[in-house]
Every structure is written in C-alpha cells, then in structure tokens.
Amino acid sequence: MIIQHRPDLTENDVTPKSAYLNRRQLMLAAGGVALSGIAPAALATPPAAPPWLSTKVSNTAYRSITTDEGVTDLRDATSYNNFYEFGTGKSDPSSHAADFNPYPWEIEVGGLCDNPGTLDLESVLNGKRTEERIYRLRCVEAWSMVIPWIGIELATLLKPFQPTANARYVAFETVLRPNELRGQRSLFSFIDYPYVEGLRLDEAMHPLAFLAVGMYGEPLPNQSGAPIRLLMPWKYGFKSIKSISKITFVEQMPPTTWNLANANEYGFYANVNPQVDHPRWSQATERRIGPNGDIRRINTRLFNGYDEVASLYQGMDLRKQF
Ligand code: MTE
Which pLDDT band, with edges at 50, 70 and 90, does 224 fall under? Predict the structure, then answer.
C-alpha cells in the first residue's frame, strides 16, 4: 500500500475520470457486453445527485491512500455488484438503480453517546475535507476489484457524537424502503431487511475505515450504495454496508445480516484471511477484475494486504473469530 500525505496536491492530481474510461468502455458504450455478460439495456435514468454534492466530490483535491495496482474499469465496478435490496443477480443493482431516490438523505446517529442526532447528508460533509482513496475490495465470493472512492474517514463522522465509555460496538443499518427497493419486498429473500452490519468501536475508529460518497470522481451511483456507504478494505465486502441511514453505538456485539443468515459461513469479524476457507470454497486466491476487464487469479493476502490493522486483532484466534 502506498500512503501519500500530500496536502499540496491540486485537483488535477486526483485521478481524472478519463483515465478510467478506456477503449474497452467506449466499445461497451457502443453496444458491447458488460462483465456480467448482459447486454446493456436502455435503462431508466436514476435521480441526479444534488449539484452541491457533485461539486464537492469533483473538487476533491486530496488523495491520501493509493496503490500501484491497476484500477478496475468504472463500467465493471458499477455493473457487477452485490446489493440484495435491488435483487440477487450481479446486474440487478445497475438494472434497477433508477427505482431508488437517495436525495434528500438523513442519517440518524444515537445509542450510547452524549450527543445523539440526525444529520442530513450536507451536514455529514460540512466542513470536512473529502479525499480520494484507492482501495482493494475483496468479496467473500472470492472476486476483487480496485476502486477509487471519495469520502471521509468514518471516525470524523463518529467522534462528534461522543460515544460513552460503555459503547464498545457500532451498528449500521441500510435504509428500509420496500417501495423503491424491490429486494426488500421479495417474498423469497434469504436475508432479512434492513441490511445490518457492525464493527468494534476500535475498528470503526481506525483511519482506514472510510465512508464514501463518491467514486471515480462522481457521486456514488445507486448500485454502489448512494448516497453514503462504508468501506472496510481489510474485511470481506459484505461488511461494507451501503446506503446507510442509521448508526447506533452499542455495548454488545450487534447482529449482522450475513451472520444471521448463516453463522457457520459468515462471521462478525470477516477479516480477509487466505488461511480460513469459507466452508464451501477456498479463500486462498481471488479473481481480480482489473483494468480493461482483465480477470486474473491472484493470491489473497491476510487483511487484504492492509497489514497495519493487525494490532487490532492481537491475541485473537482468527480461525475461531472469523
Ligand atoms: N450493503 C447492502 N445494504 N446490501 C447488500 O446486499 N452487499 C455487500 C456490500 N454491501 C450489500 C451491501 C457485499 S456482499 C459486497 S461484496 C459489497 O457490498 C459489494 O459492493 P459493490 O457492489 O460496490 O462492489
């Protein structure tokens, strides 16, 4: 991982969007097929992000954490998704993105804290410097991407709420809007809604824990978790909960969606670990969906290569607390 602390960077130093729009994507736009193998259909247009958000995201001039690995094409990162609220297929989130209107948005923050409250999205970002971070995203299904996100550290949102001494965990909830999110009205869903996730408080306060409001220089598209989603780059992707509407400081380990669905297969910690296989498949390697749609099998790294988090788990048996 390359850490750049360069407050002198200008807007032009942030990865220009044109860099992600390569020849292959132009071909796709001209009628090719996406990674999912589904020909792009004429889709309805999702509601546009408010101008203040587009401006804030595109004016992001600071890039703090990056990588020299090739960045996944925008097209693949936004057409091959997991977002069960839109359906279980990889192309369902992009196909049904227009059903959802994330503007305006509010996040309610409460539980064990001295300063609970509800913030609109503008207040979440107000006075905070957004930054670009290029993170690896490793899904528990053994595929991975490299994506340039734009947002803020999770800790900068959480700290002003002043968690109390007995707050040991943070619980997150995705918005519940069955009228807009067809997966939430499905009678055959094998996860319950709202989608819930959780972190230990020290994990949540780690500088790598990130809240994204944009990617590839634009506000997040709906299929990627608009208007605000978590990114925990050292954990399997299911911890990176999308479209967050509620955050609660709690004392006990909170329930999490995939653990509730199958506790044998999906643990609370979900740290990327090549030595702890999923009961139904190996986690030793992953399918990297890289630039130009290039797919390679690469070795999976402990904590997805983010070694600086190791001290959070000192003394724990990572096989048992998986
Ligand atoms: N958040 C919600 N609310 N619903 C979901 O189904 N899927 C998770 C995570 N966040 C999911 C979610 C999973 S399994 C993964 S791998 C990542 O989102 C995928 O993020 P991406 O689609 O942006 O690649």
Answer: very high
Tokens representing 178? 């069955």
* Residue of the CA atom closest to atom 16 of ligand 1: 237
The CB of 94 under 6 Å from ligand 1? The reply is no
> For residue 82, how far is its CA from the centre of ligand 1 (angstroms)?
4
11-313 topology per CATH? Sulfite Oxidase; Chain A, domain 2 (3.90.420)
For position 39, what pLDDT does the model report?
44
Give the mutation target among 35, 76, 83, 283 for probing the ligand 1 site: most ligand atoms within 8 A of CB.
83
285 within 8 A of 298, measured Cβ to Cβ: yes
β-pairing, 106-111 vs 62-66, is: unpaired
The ranges assigned to domains in the chain are: 11-313
- Give the closest residue (by CA) to ligand 1 atom 22: 81
Q: CA-to-CA distance for 298 and 290, rounded, in angstroms?
A: 11
* Rounded Cα gap, residues 164 and 115, in angstroms: 10
pTM metric for this prediction: 0.91
Q: Which residue would you say has higher pLDDT here, 207 or 188?
A: 207
Confidence of residue 65 (pLDDT cuts 50, 70, 90): confident
Cross-strand bridge partners of residue 110 = 248
* Rounded CA separation 226/211 (Å): 11
The closest residue, in CA terms, to atom 14 on ligand 1 is 238
Range of lowest pLDDT (15-24, 51-60, 92-101): 15-24
Residue 212 has pLDDT above 80, yes or no: yes
* Location of structure tokens 């009228």: 179
Strand spans (E) along the chain: 2-3, 62-66, 106-111, 117-120, 131-138, 143-153, 169-174, 196-200, 210-215, 218-219, 229-231, 244-250, 285-289, 295-299
Span 292-319, average pLDDT: 98
Q: 85 CB contacts (<8 Å, ≥6 apart)?
A: 174, 181, 182, 183, 184, 193, 195, 242, 243
Cβ–ligand 1 contact at 246 (below 6 Å): no
